[in-house]
Amino acid sequence: MRCKNLIGTYMCICNPGYTRAPNGEGCIDLNECSAKPGICENGRCENTVGSYRCRCDQGFSANPTQTECIDNRQGLCFTEVLTTLCQMQSSSRNSVTKSECCCDGGRGWGSNCELCPLPGTTHYKKMCPLGPGYTTDGKDIDECRVMGNLCVNGQCVNSLGSYSCVCKTGYTTDITGTLCVDMDECVQAPKPCNFICKNTEGSYLCSCPRGYILQEDGKSCRDLDECQSKQHNCQFLCVNTIGGFTCKCPPGFTQHHTACIGNTHKLPPPPLD
Asked: How far apart are CA 155 and CA 139, in angstroms?
């Protein structure tokens, strides 16, 4: 208590937890339990000299100053809610507290699908005073455990107030570092394929132009010998060329596309392979 001088009189200034006596002289204890409606929510208020303490209900525990009851009940967290129904497929199947869920992007919590407050609202600020990533009592939230569908195609790594993704080969993080997206290997330098590159989900495929065949390394191409592999339609003789083949006819015959045409000579049998 301290005294404030006034013109012709004085006034007592009371410390927190006290109020001025009815006669204005001195301070008396303030009964916060009756003076503050809604105090000790989810518990029972007990007045003390200069303060108060909360006796919390089952499933709730007092904060370090014993002036508030923290929800410690365990339940599933849901990221999808249709009307008032929590969608089971959106749950990580790990039991967490309500603030772990709702301060980490959850939409509904618990067996009765208690809806999470919307970010920016008074209820949200009360439940998440430090903002996203922290529980009501200021503890870091392990997003990787609470939100089980994070970092698809990668591994989730928890960090203070947030998380990051370590992506599998063929994937890379987006600009936020919290999502693994397909990497287009075909636009990288150096290019992974010597000829034709086709990007696929999480990987890529190399292919060759007509007349070439993919080598064992899966990246480079070599000439396809159509004559040896019998991938030609020459009537008589096949001659391999780089990237293709040509047909030849015996003397006395005229080449016409792949056929040999003779005026008087009979076409001999093709040579044995």
From this structure: 22
Note whether 170 and 152 are within 8 A (CB): no
Backbone angles phi, psi at 54, to 5 degrees: -100, 130
Q: What single-letter DSSP state applies at residue 170?
A: T
Structure tokens at 38: 């809604």
Residues in the chain: 273
Q: What is the torsional sign of CA 32, 34, 38, 42? A: positive
**Is 9 strand, coil or helix?**
strand
Selection from 5, 73, 75, 68 nearest residue 39 by Cα: 68
* Model confidence pLDDT, tens digit, residues 85-95: 999 988 888 89
Query: Rounded CA gap, 209 and 136, in Å?
Result: 62
Q: Count how many Cα atoms sit within 13 Å of the Cα of residue 272 in the half-sphere of its side chain.
A: 0
Q: Mean pLDDT across the chain, nearest whole number?
A: 87
> DSSP string of 218-244?
SS-EEE--TTTTT----SSEEEEETTE
Instruction: State the pairing for strand pair 85-86/81-82.
Output: antiparallel
3-state secondary structure of 60: strand
pTM for the full model? 0.60
- Candidates 179, 145, 132, 140; CA nearest to 160 is 140
Question: 64 and 70 in contact (C-beta within 8 Å)?
Answer: no
